[in-house]
Every structure is written in structure tokens, then in C-alpha cells.
Amino acid sequence: MKLVLVTNIYAPYREPVWNVLATMVDELHVVLMRESESNRLWGMGYERRQYKIHILGSKGSFCGGWLDSELYLGGGIWQLLNKVKPTRLILAGYTAGPFIEAMIWAKMRKIPFGQWYESHTYSSHFKGGAISFLRRLLLGLADAWCVPGLMSKAYLEEMGIPSDKITIAPNTVDVHKIRSLLISQYPPDNYEHRSGPARIFYIGQYLKRKRVDLLLDAYSELPPDGAVLRLVGYGPLEDELRKRAVELKGVEFLSATRTLEETMQHYSWADIVVMPSDREVWGLVVNEALAAGCYVLSSSLAGVTPDLVENAPLDVGKVINPLAGAAALTNVLSATIDDIAKIRKRRAAIVQWGQNFTPELTAKGLFEALESINN
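^ that's the sequence the OP posted. Answer follows.
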């Protein structure tokens, strides 16, 4: 199988998945619209790459606010596909011009393609009208469908995609590297005897939908000396949130990390990781936090929550509803802080659960979606 995977940009957490997928096919080509987006701090890695990478240089423009995504036009995908001559395609999108061109190219040549679809009912901007009709039309052109979790699967089913045609390939981070860092620097068994206030941690972008303001409001109502809070991130609301944070006791406001090694220093410090987003396609911070052994408070509106938190075989976290307001989040934080001694003793078990979601599992799901086309 000569496979072409078309996606928006390079993302470091995808590199391990692409490397594993490359071992499952005869040849893998990863096609990027652009190397990066204007709202990302990611650098492009080149370690142990087992596939070929192509950057289209599509013209992109970031649309913040309500849309909060990048739009792409052009880039020469048609010419590249003619040159590579793939026998299968995976498209990790459907709205940008190059994705639609790739669909047409595949249909004209009767080349099967799979759609890697991650959105769900809570993350979708358009739930009716012409845009919804166009989405159904374009997604329906695929020969196979792959999703990261239950929310996305349910959303495709609502759009008429047969359940038995949808394969789940859970989103992942580099759990192998996290495991290596845990073994060498942060053994989870060392946390059983940790004492002192509960350590609450947020890491991510400072965007309106991330609801860091809600976390600060909830934290401000906690009893004094019971917890401390650390915020690590970047984004347009950084100055506004910093001003608010410095007014609160026990809050650290730190610069964004750029490497997993830096990020792991914070996860090793933390007991509880909070993701209070009111719109989140997935939420990879939960993958990272669990793989590092942290207890998570995960938004009910995030794709990751049913698969990694609600369906976990042990208590690895709680579901929070960001629409319920700060008082509700304060109550969940208080209940979690009351159990902090038990949570610290559970850290090694949480690591074991989080480490289940590997790049191999994701690549296997993608490959099985493509193989299902022949059945």
C-alpha cells in the first residue's frame, strides 16, 4: 500500500503515530498544508522520520474569535498526487481547498480514501443549514471513516455514516517518551508520601474558549492554604489573565513550555490537572496528564472525556461542566482536594491507564480503517 496522508500542519504529537503507520504500509507520504500555524509555538522535528513529508505552502489565514481556525487555499495537491501515485489516501480534514481537490482526484481515479474526522456535536460551529448539508455531502464521499473517540463516532452516525464503517483510533501523545522520563526522573511511586496543599495545574493556550478565567474564579473561592495553582501557557488573553492571577494567593503564572521535557517538569509537580474548556475537539492535555500520573478534571464538552475519563476502569478524574459556572467548579475542586491523599497514592495506577493510549494503537486504528475498504 502506498499511502498519502493529508493534514493541516506538522504537530509534534503526530510524529510517533506517523512513524508507526509507516511501518504498516509500503510507503507513507505525509502532506502538510503548511509547516505551522500562526497561533502555534510548535517547531518542526526531524527525529527518526520513517516517512516522506511534503509541504504544500498553501496560503493560510488564521481566523480567531468564534471560528478559531486556519483557512487554506491552493498549494498544488493535485500535482503532488499525480507524482506520488498513491493507492490509498487518508484526509484529516474536508473543508479546505486542498482536501476537496484530493477527494476529487481520488474519485476520478477510483482511489479509495479514508476520512480522519475528529469533531463532535459540542465542537462543531455549524449545526444546520447549507454548511451542515455540505459537511454531510463531503464526509459521505469517503470509503472509510476513522475517529478518535465516542463523541466523534456518535456525530458521524448522526450524519448518516453507518456505525460499522467507523473505526476508533484514539488520539495520543508520545507516551513512550513520557514513560522514559518517568522512569529516569519522576517515578510515580515517589508521590505516595507527598504532603502539603493540593497542587492544581493548567497548561494550554490562553483563549476565551479555554475558560482559564473560570478556573481562576473557582480557585479564588477555595479555602485558604488548601491548594496552590500553577498556570503555564500563552495566547491573546495572557496579559489579562496574569493581572488577575497575581491578585490571588498561591498562584504561579509561568511561561509556555516548548518541549516535552519542560512540560514533564510541571506534570511532575502537579497533583490535579484542570481542563475547563467550553469547546474542545479532543484535549490532548488529558492524555499527557494521565500518562504522567496526574488526576484530571476534564470538561464534559471535550472529545477526550468519555474515552479516557468516564470509561476508565478506576478513578482517574472527574467530569466538569464549564457551563455550570464557577461555583460548581469550586465544589468539584473542593471534593478533589479532600481526597488528595488517596489521589497521590493512586498515581502509579493512573500512569498505567494513561499509558494505554499509544501511537501504536492510533496507527492500528487508521490502518484498520483503510483495510476495511477491501472487506
